[in-house]
Amino acid sequence: MDNSDDKSLLDLEIVASLKALGGDDDPELFADLVSMFMDDTPARLQAMDEALSAGDSEALSRVAHALKSSCGNLGAFSLAELCRAIESAGRGGDVDGARPLVEQSKTQYERVRTALEAELA
């Protein structure tokens, strides 16, 4: 994966500001944020799958909104944008239209996870 690809996955300015945020007082802050994101996101992706299976557009919208926020906080704007589209589809009751977006979000999460792991190295 080249650097231009990483830049589309993560806003490196946000990553740098999060790394600096902890400063000397909490040097592990960024690692902690990444760890929480990596712990929570698979469950949220699973919850989106379950909402799709149940045809529950409200639950789909809710989960996508929560994931969108956590993606944005870490600068993972490409994944946040997918979540925004899923949230919008859910709000509109378009469960079928959200299916391919949810599948794309799983692939995108794996790419974001890899990029975040590289930032921790």
Describe this protein's structure.
By secondary structure, the chain is mostly helical. It has one domain (3-20, 29-120): Up-down Bundle (Four Helix Bundle (Hemerythrin (Met), subunit A)), CATH 1.20.120. The protein is built from 6 helices and no strands. It has helices spanning 3-9, 12-22, 29-54, 57-74, 77-91, 95-120. Helix 5 packs antiparallel against helix 6. Residues 1-6 have low confidence and may be disordered.
Question: Summary?
Answer:
This protein has helices at about 5-10, 10-20, 30-55, 55-75, 75-90, 95-120. The chain is an all-alpha fold and about 120 residues long.
Topology:
Elements: H1 3-9, H2 12-22, H3 29-54, H4 57-74, H5 77-91, H6 95-120
Report the radius of gyration as a whole number of Å. Answer: 15 Å
| Separation of the first and last Cα atoms | 15 Å
Count of all domains: 1
Helix % is: over 70%
Nearest-integer average pLDDT: 92
Indicate the multimeric state: single chain
Low-confidence stretches: 1-6
CATH class: Mainly Alpha
Q: What labels describe this entry?
A:
mainly alpha; Four Helix Bundle (Hemerythrin (Met), subunit A); single chain; 121 residues; 0% strand; elongated
